[in-house]
Task: inverse folding
């Protein structure tokens, strides 16, 4: 250096001491200003503060040996990894907790949580926060890293160095060329274990989709997918999980929820703290097995909760035509189980009828074990289903023999019987006795359903056989699929919505479980006269009575949640504390609405059905009282599983963990007192910053004496946030305690739900069923108040008499009044009616009106007519409209013939049969021949009540003459006025009139449709010519027949008498045609 030159600039390296020095933390302050590099090197004022190094977690799960001894200035810790507590520390902690427990509980074994408000510090709080001193090992390490570079190298070189190559293991590389991370390996294993399932995997605060699942999420949920190392990835926020889950389920996917089964706080003290979070499949769902919450806004169809159905089939011959089918249908959301065993024909119309009634959203079938006819109908049904994502189909490989199936069911109930809490049905063996009475095919289907639903945790739905229902019972009429469609029972045939259907007319229910029962009633009208009369009498008494009990019953039904679904969520252990509070309050409302009675007659109604309903409601009082003595509803409504118990000692493990947390909070209060004294800040309170609790926040401008060993959390322009090491350790204990308390509280809550399910499910479910019946009766009473509705009269005489009947849906949809019609069938009147008339004249509406009034009467409803007398029908069979079935390879005519064949097979003398334009779709003569033969068969062989619509006047005339006592011709009234141009204007009167309509006025109907007049003129001319030709040909044939019969009679012989009778009939026809 030259003389006279300016002093050299201080080097940064000069600030790092080359030798041991005194404790740098002594008297130092937390430095936050700029470093002045131009000051003197030995100036104490310019000495920079110790550099705070950022601690990061190594990317590799295995730490190197050198990082284990890494020195970090400013930290009073020896290693970054948390050490598990020793036995001495655990014993000391238990003693502190026990002492705190005794102090807190005092003598009455009760405790109250500390109020959350601020507490003023005491004046004598003058204790100082003492700092810990470094141990010998820490001083030695400090000295080692303070020597000169050469000495440090010598010291380090004395230890053997392990190179990374010596312990590196060849790892499998992914598609991107990089090794799989621990998380990716975990994902691979999860996807391998759950093939065919879309997995939503919890990673931090998001749920992520990996691989093909990310493609599904991108397609169905409209989200972006991107490549992240070895997987295509898509993610959603945790709080949006259920929304996206239900969207995927609605599209027919099976979705699994994979959650982190350990928390950060517990993982930190666990044995696998350096490994990825443990993740397990905690939920598996399909559209039918997902039981939505009580307050869900996505449950839009109040009539049908999506059911699951298992179908097994057994051939009864060498061909596919005759089979025996067994099925089990269960609705997991409501717990309703329906079973049936039946024989079916090649067209599988019986199976189709059951599918139409139950509307399953998921099918479980035998892979390769069904006939082609059954597979075809199931494929057709899944295609036309109204479910947005279609019907999901699952298969099982091998069909259980009956003995194996029964053994599986027996083992299932035996395991339940060995549980800590057992229902009376399982304990007594009644449930197995009921199942042994089921048909063998149903038992096999039940075993497969149990096995499948066990994967979803829903097999407990089969624990109550009291709610097993046979689909086909003698007490109900079964409406076939085409009848449901033709009469628009559940939905209209225009836009396929409820509006304009019979359900739309009859449904005035207040609850969802009531609406579902009413749908069941409407689809299965009663054929048991006693049960039907009880319904009708109950509706009549509701209309006439002013009893306060009915008023109370209406008030109870208002605002009730879906209790059936809520009980099922309890049964499956899926009910949240908030939902439990809602359910208990609802049942308490029911219990408070009735007084204790000894027998049903004490209720005071004339109707035995109403007495039974009101009397049964008092049975819920006992369960409600028991539950209220256990649960604090206010705490449960806030979702507090740990503190929702009236008696905290009911679950001691929960209480112990709660007390441990209170002890830690008390110790943190002591820490706060010490910090207040140290900082001379009496009003200091704990702060929570970005989720970090128990943080000390001070203003920079206050210049508080912050100890150097405090960990600074964050800082802003005006504030700094710290957490002392002693507080940090207690916060970790506090977090671990909270997680442990949460797990134990959840375990205790599930035990309580299981207790409710086993003890009270049957009683509570029976109460819900009675309320559903009450809701349906009140709904029918509301319908009875509609203008022009009357009570039907159920008679023993074989008649169906409707005076001034009206179509219920058309009347409700139209502003103009409906033209009533009278139909008399049976008794002195013929049981069969042939209806002719102009197109658009109202023939189909009139016959539908008759069928709908009959159905309404046997449901128990009042009907739109002046009077109705009806003998109970055992079925209503219809063949109306024209439609093909290309999916099943059937033309329009084939569909018509198949439906007619099923009607001829099913009809009895107590049936009502409706045939609309039978025979169209083929040649005129073939159609006429089929229509004539079918009607003659119904008249001669079956003897049922028939409404036959046709456009063949010759058939109507011939059959009425042949069966004058059994067939009566009717036609829809009209007025025809001929214009100057030769065209006729038709005015429809919509009134059934005796006699035959001579023509159908098809050309005039075309004019109403807007066809060109020139075209209509040609059509009218050809129609007249063809009519004359047909009449002339008919007359010629009759003349030839007359001459042939006359010749036979003149020759004599054994056939002369028969020929003479036939000659008389033909002669009468010729005379009638002439006049």
Result:
């Amino acid at each position: 250096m030259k003389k006279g030159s300016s002093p050299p600039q201080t080097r940064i390296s000069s600030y790092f001491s080359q030798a041991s020095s005194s404790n740098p933390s002594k008297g130092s302050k937390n430095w936050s200003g700029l470093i002045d590099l131009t000051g003197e090197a030995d100036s104490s004022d310019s000495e920079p503060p110790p550099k705070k190094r950022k601690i990061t977690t190594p990317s590799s799960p295995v730490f190197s040996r050198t990082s284990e001894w890494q020195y970090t200035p400013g930290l009073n810790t020896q290693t970054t990894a948390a050490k598990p507590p020793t036995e001495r520390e655990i014993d000391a902690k238990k003693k502190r907790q026990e002492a705190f427990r005794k102090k807190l509980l005092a003598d009455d074994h009760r405790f109250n949580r500390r109020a959350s408000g601020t507490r003023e510090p005491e004046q004598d709080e003058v204790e100082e926060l003492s700092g810990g001193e470094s141990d010998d090992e820490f001083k030695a390490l400090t000295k080692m890293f303070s020597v000169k570079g050469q000495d440090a190298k010598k010291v380090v070189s004395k230890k053997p160095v392990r190179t990374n190559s010596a312990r590196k293991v060849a790892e499998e590389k992914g598609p991107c060329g990089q090794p799989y991370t621990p998380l990716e390996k975990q994902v691979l294993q999860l996807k391998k274990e759950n093939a065919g399932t879309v997995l939503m995997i919890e990673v931090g605060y998001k749920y992520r989709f990996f691989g093909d699942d990310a493609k599904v999420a991108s397609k169905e949920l409209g989200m972006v997918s991107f490549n992240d190392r070895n997987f295509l990835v898509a993610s959603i926020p945790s709080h949006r999980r259920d929304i996206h889950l239900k969207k995927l389920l609605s599209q027919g996917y099976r979705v699994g929820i994979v959650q982190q089964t350990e928390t950060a706080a517990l993982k930190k003290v666990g044995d696998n703290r350096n490994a990825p979070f443990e993740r397990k499949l905690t939920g598996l769902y399909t559209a039918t097995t997902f039981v939505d919450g009580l307050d869900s806004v996505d449950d839009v169809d109040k009539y049908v909760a999506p059911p699951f159905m298992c179908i097994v089939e057994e051939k009864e011959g060498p061909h596919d035509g005759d089979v025996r089918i067994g099925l089990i249908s269960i609705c997991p959301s409501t717990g309703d189980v329906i079973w049936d065993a039946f024989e079916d024909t090649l067209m599988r119309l019986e199976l189709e009828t059951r599918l139409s009634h139950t509307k399953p959203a998921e099918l479980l079938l035998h892979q390769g074990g069904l006939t082609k006819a059954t597979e075809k109908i199931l494929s057709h049904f899944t295609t036309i289903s109204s479910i947005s994502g279609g019907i999901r189909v699952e298969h099982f490989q091998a069909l259980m023999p009956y003995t194996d199936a029964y053994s599986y069911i027996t083992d299932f109930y035996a395991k339940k019987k060995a549980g800590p809490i057992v229902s009376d049905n399982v304990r007594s063996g009644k449930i197995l006795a009921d199942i042994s009475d089921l048909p063998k095919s149903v038992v096999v289907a039940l075993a497969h359903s149990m096995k499948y639903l066990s994967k979803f945790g829903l097999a407990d739905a089969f624990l109550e056989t009291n709610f097993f229902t046979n689909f086909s019972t003698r007490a109900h009429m079964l409406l076939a699929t085409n009848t449901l469609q033709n009469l628009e029972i559940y939905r209209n045939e225009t836009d396929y919505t409820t509006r304009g259907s019979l359900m739309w007319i009859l449904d005035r229910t207040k609850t969802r479980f009531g609406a579902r029962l009413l749908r069941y009633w409407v689809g299965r009208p009663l054929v048991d006269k006693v049960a039907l009369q009880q319904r009708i009498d109950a509706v009549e008494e509701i209309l006439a009575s002013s009893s306060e009990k009915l008023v109370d019953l209406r008030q109870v039904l208002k605002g009730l949640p879906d209790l059936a679904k809520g009980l099922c969520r309890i049964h499956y252990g899926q009910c949240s504390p908030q939902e439990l509070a809602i359910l208990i309050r609802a049942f308490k409302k029911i219990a408070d609405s009735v007084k204790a009675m000894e027998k049903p007659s004490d209720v005071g109604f004339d109707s035995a059905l109403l007495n039974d309903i009101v009397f049964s409601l008092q049975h819920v009082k006992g369960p409600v009282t028991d539950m209220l003595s256990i649960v604090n509803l206010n705490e449960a409504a806030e979702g507090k599983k740990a503190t929702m118990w009236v008696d905290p000692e009911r679950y001691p493990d929960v209480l112990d963990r709660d007390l441990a947390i209170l002890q830690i909070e008390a110790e943190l209060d002591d820490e706060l007192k010490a910090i207040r004294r140290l900082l001379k800040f009496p009003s200091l309170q704990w702060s929570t910053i970005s989720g970090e609790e128990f943080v000390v926040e001070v203003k920079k401008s206050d210049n508080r004496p912050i100890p150097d060993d405090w960990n600074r959390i964050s800082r802003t322009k005006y504030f700094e946030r710290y957490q002392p090491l002693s507080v940090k350790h207690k916060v970790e204990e506090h977090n671990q305690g909270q997680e442990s308390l949460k797990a134990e509280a959840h375990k205790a809550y599930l035990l309580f739900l299981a207790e409710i399910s086993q003890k009270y499910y049957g009683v509570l479910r029976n109460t819900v069923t009675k309320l559903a019946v009450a809701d349906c009766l009140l709904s029918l009473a509301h319908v009875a108040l509609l203008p022009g509705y009357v009570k039907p009269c159920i008679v023993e005489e074989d008649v169906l008499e409707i005076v001034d009947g009206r179509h219920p849906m058309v009347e409700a949809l139209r502003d103009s009044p409906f033209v009533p019609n009278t139909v008399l069938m049976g008794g002195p009147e013929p049981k069969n009616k042939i209806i002719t008339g102009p197109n658009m004249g109202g023939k189909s509406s009139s016959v539908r009106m008759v069928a709908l009034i009959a159905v309404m009467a046997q449901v128990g409803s009042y009907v739109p007519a002046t009077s109705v007398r009806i003998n109970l029908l055992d079925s209503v069979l219809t063949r109306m409209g024209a439609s093909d079935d290309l999916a099943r390879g059937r033309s329009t005519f084939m569909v018509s013939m198949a439906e007619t064949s099923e009607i001829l097979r099913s009809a009895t003398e107590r049936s009502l049969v409706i045939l609309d334009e039978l025979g169209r779709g083929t040649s005129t003569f073939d159609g006429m021949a089929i229509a004539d033969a079918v009607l003659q068969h119904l008249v001669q062989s079956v003897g049922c009540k028939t409404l036959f619509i046709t456009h063949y006047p010759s058939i109507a005339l011939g059959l009425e003459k042949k069966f004058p006592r059994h067939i009566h011709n009717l036609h829809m009234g009209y007025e025809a006025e001929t214009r100057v141009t030769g065209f006729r204007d038709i005015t429809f009167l919509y009134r059934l009139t005796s006699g035959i309509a001579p023509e159908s006025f098809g050309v005039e109907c075309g004019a109403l449709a807007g066809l060109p007049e020139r075209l209509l003129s040609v059509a009218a001319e050809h129609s007249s010519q063809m009519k004359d030709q047909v009449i002339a040909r008919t007359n010629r044939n009759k003349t030839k027949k007359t001459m042939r019969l006359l010749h036979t009679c003149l020759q004599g012989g054994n056939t002369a008498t028969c020929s003479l009778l036939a000659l008389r009939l033909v002669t009468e026809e010729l005379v009638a045609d002439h006049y």
Observations:
- The chain is about 45% helix and 15% strand.
- The mean pLDDT is 81.
